[in-house]
Amino acid sequence: MGSLTMPSVQTSLSISSFEHITAVQVPVIGGSMSLICVDTRDDQTNNKDKGWAWVVCVGSSLMMFFTFGTHTCFGVLLNALLDHFQETKARTAWVGSISVNLLFVFSPITSRLAERYGVRAVTIAGGILITFGLFLSAYAPSLLIMYLTYGLLFGIGTSLCGTMAQVITVDYFDKHLSLATGIVASGSSVGTLVLAPFLQFLLERYKWQSIFKLMAGIGILLSIIGLIFKPVKDQNEESLVRRRQSVDYGACSMSGVPCNRFGLFDCGIFKNKAFILWVIATCSAGFGYFIPHFFLIQFSEEIGIPRSQGSWLISYLGISSTIGRILFGKLSDVCCIRNLPIYRLCMLMIGLASTLCPFAKSYEALVAYVIVLGLLDGSYIGLMSIVTLEIVKINNIIRAWGILYFCQSFTYLLGPPTAGMMYDYFKSYKSVFYLAGASMIFGAIVLLFVPCCTPTNIQQMANITLATPNGTPIRTPDIIITDVNNNSQLLVVEKLTSL
């Protein structure tokens, strides 16, 4: 890469001999935050972006399809577990909540395991845990055993496979890294779209135990996919590790910066009062986030809609959510309004939609609800990373993202069981959706006070033109310079959120 020019700043930055520039997308729950990593290294034998890399990309997308798709479609399996164990909705919902919690909580540990044992070994171990977890769940005599087999083993297994599926692309791609990451991330949305009606189709013909055994076989397939994650020979292993960490749920360390400076649980970030309010608001919203995913099918059945039709509601939710993430990502890029007010308004509207959901009396009304919910969910998921960036600024984004994910995982854990407890007490799904709506509305109210506490120090913005050695411009994004430690790497972050 020839040079970097900064026309909106009086001084210019020129760094020569750039061999790689890649746009890395830090995944959130189906969304991403775009990072551009520019590496200078002597890489005379670069085999990236070629045939085998795309095999790895497809394999990673299949992992996302199954791991994240199964979690978002747990509401379909919940019906079968309720019918079999004849337990309360609150106790049964813990099965799915524990696995979702471990999917996120275990991801930092997964990262450390990958650094020590390698991506391939961790992925294979994840597939084995998924296989054992689902196979043993098929023989579980009680919900307590299901908490251990499905909740613990399957949850940790999906964390191992899901996390590795998202970080492995950095090892195999440079030029097409952004495209590859987008393909991998789309696997979760496609999984939500396909798995919900497919699982319901199987449940109408076979026992749930047989389906769990079939899904256990998919765990073996994931382990086989892990075998294609062969180690990459890179002459600069330290650079490779840094680039891999940059997409691992934000739990990374900047180039040349000691890990303890950007520690995942560095509580110094809580000196920012706006961030404290942001954590409270998003955790409150997270409390109600999975409630519709878990109980919407049962509510539709209560008003006379067959399960075969009700399962499609989750698919419609997945489709509209994908569209919403793209729309709000583009809106964030072109709109002159700050992202926080957009986020707050969407959170409020999600709450109101969930509050009105119990008044739906037809299938068409529920379809309208899930479409609205999915489109607005595009803001909740797609803009979360960007609003976090606006609140804590770029120097604190790594530690802030890790703490935010950690705190949210526990509200994901508690939300559905609490909703089930509400139903068991009131014998009505009105209370369930009121709880989902109230948690979102409360979060929106808390966000009203964030601007009052937001720090005034603003990162310097610059328009940077990237050009090839012959002077041909590549692109001109609006970006924030985040860290320049030496001549080996420059890390910058885009304003755009997509996919």
TrEMBL record:
One GO CC term on file: membrane
Membrane-crossing residue ranges in chain numbering: 20-40, 52-81, 93-110, 117-138, 144-165, 177-199, 211-229, 275-297, 309-328, 340-360, 366-389, 431-450
Molecular function via GO: monocarboxylic acid transmembrane transporter activity
Membrane-related topology note: Multi-pass membrane protein
Domain of life (superkingdom): Eukaryota
Major facilitator superfamily (MFS) profile domain ranges (all copies): 53-455
Keyword annotations of the record: Membrane, Transmembrane, Transmembrane helix
Subcellular location: Membrane
One Pfam short name: MFS_1
Listed PANTHER family: EG:103B4.3 PROTEIN-RELATED (PTHR11360:SF284), MONOCARBOXYLATE TRANSPORTER (PTHR11360)
Annotated protein name in UniProt: Major facilitator superfamily (MFS) profile domain-containing protein
Lineage of producing organism: Eukaryota, Metazoa, Cnidaria, Anthozoa, Hexacorallia
